[in-house]
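Checklist before submission:
- one chain only
- standard amino acids only
- sequence pasted in full

Submission:
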Amino acid sequence: MVQRKRGKYSNRVPLKEQLKKRLTNVLTPEELTLIPTGYQIIGDIMLLNLKPPLLHQQLLIANTILEILPSIKTVYLNTGGITGQFREPSVKYITGEKKSTARHVENHVIYEFDIEKIMFSKGNINERGKNLPKLVQPREIIVDMFAGIGYFSLPIAVHARPSHIYAIELNPTSYMFLEKNIQLNKVEGFIIPFQGNCMDIVPNLARDGIIADRIIMGILPAPKEYLPTALQLTQSGKKTILHYEGIAIRRDVEPLFQEVRDACDKAGRSPTLRAWRIIKNYGPFKYHAVLDCEIS
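Returned file contents:
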């Protein structure tokens, strides 16, 4: 739905219907039925999903969107899929201002990033912006092993005010935006960023005496090979919450918890599954799940 009144169009008229009305004498009846219902808006950039029969009309549709929605300055086409070591999105510029850096505000948190180089899933909004910050207790020491641009670290710092968050990111581009987002959100006193591989940085933190109250492993697929490294941040006699994400087939999270259990057995730790949540559908019978495991 269009969020507020723009021009002569009512804020109650879905964008799809506005496009169909504008293009009814331009597109064929078959093409009109293929105009998509959903669009992703990131700041003032729109990501457009089009089915193959509409691709030859992408410029027309994108320019019409700019006419309908003055707040949108740039339109990209989502060409589908992710590529490379750093899971870069496949998108293509169509029209509008020639830029790829977006500034997106979500739950009073500012995220700035390059949409051509960095994935940003709005399907995770409740987990990163609401669920996780509510679970964090005052003065927690947190290690975010796959921090990205600050997907989890930023909302926790803004809303929960922990002691410190050690935010680790390998991708140089994501790390650059992580540093910038820390400044934009004025949380320099809470987030300590590290650029590099968490398999190298976490052992150094452990050697420096850092014991985590909470460890965030927010990446897909489930990073089970990193579990032994994460467990170096735990200590016998102290409870640590492990935020572990993965794909659950038919909503069955037991295989994911078994990965945690196996790693804990080798490290001399005892895990308890305190809670689990389904984030979103990930494919036929596949679900993006998150587990809250207490390690002691």
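Reviewer check: The longest helix spans residues 254-267.
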